[in-house]
Amino acid sequence: ELLAPATGAFSGQQVVITAGPTREPIDPVRYLSNHSSGKMGYALARQAQRLGAQVTLITGPTQLTAPNGVKVVAVESAMEMLEAVEQEVNTAGIFIACAAVADYRLAQVESQKIKKGDENMQLQLVRNPDILATIASREQPPLCVGFAAETQNLASYAEDKLTRKKLALIAANDVSDRRIGFNSDENAMTLFWHNTQGELQQLPLERASKDQIAAAILHQLTALPEWKKR
Ligand code: CTP
Ligand code: CA
């Protein structure tokens, strides 16, 4: 059974959420992206707002409509998403990075459409900044929540991201299971965090609607030792 926070548990809280994919332009008509639908991030926005939070949703391109009353900032590339997050997160107590940010962008974006030529071509890519790690490594960071989409070694990769990115909580899911994740309305995840002794804790969330999963993530957030310390 999934737990959900009590009504008003987030009242007075400012929450910034990233959602959806990013698009990394190649030329005026092409881009690199991924299969993220944005549904999980929008569900988090909806649930946080329902619980009384003031929500800002920074979203890559999706087919979704944001919930009423949520401030929406629409972006395309990872660099635009980082800029928007840095603008919006300063007064927020909670940052939830749900977006599937492209890890790389084009080293050079062509100003004109690339013409077809040789049989083979190469695109040169450079690393994008890690938006979540950038915010979490601030001197006085908000409570940071991350996601980890993995196809193998779920627990060890998730713990590594939790520790390395200095997160309060990480929600990990197995994206090799095609019934859930990405464009699905359902999801199944395992939440990981550290207790006050620094021991890794985990909570599996059985397959459920993304709204139910979102509520359970927000519930776990309110149960963390860091939540009370703020
Ligand atoms: N993330 C981010 N900015 C990036 C890359 C990732 O904010 N440039 C955030 C995602 O929103 C997610 C978390 O970091 O909350 C983990 O993303 P994921 O792609 O699973 O991990 P990476 O650190 O990018 O590692 P890898 O893709 O190699 O597994
Ligand atoms: Ca990545």
Walkthrough of the structure:
It is a single chain. This protein has 230 residues and is an alpha/beta fold. The protein has helices at 39-50, 78-88, 131-136, 154-164, 210-222, 225-229; strands spanning 14-19, 24-27, 30-32, 54-59, 71-74, 94-97, 104-106, 125-127, 143-150, 169-174, 186-194, 200-209. Strands 5-4-1-6-9-10-11-12 form an 8-stranded mixed beta sheet, with helices on both faces. Helix 1 crosses helix 5 (210-222). The model has no long low-confidence stretch (mean pLDDT 95). Cytidine-5'-triphosphate (CTP) is lined by residues 18, 78, 97, 99, 101, 103, 128, 130-132, 146-149, 161. Its cofactor is Mg(2+); FMN. Pathway: Cofactor biosynthesis; coenzyme A biosynthesis; CoA from (R)-pantothenate: step 2/5; Cofactor biosynthesis; coenzyme A biosynthesis; CoA from (R)-pantothenate: step 3/5. In the N-terminal section; belongs to the HFCD (homo-oligomeric flavin containing Cys decarboxylase) superfamily. In the C-terminal section; belongs to the PPC synthetase family.
Question: Could you give a short description of this structure?
Answer:
The protein has 230 residues and is of the alpha/beta class. It has six helices and twelve strands.
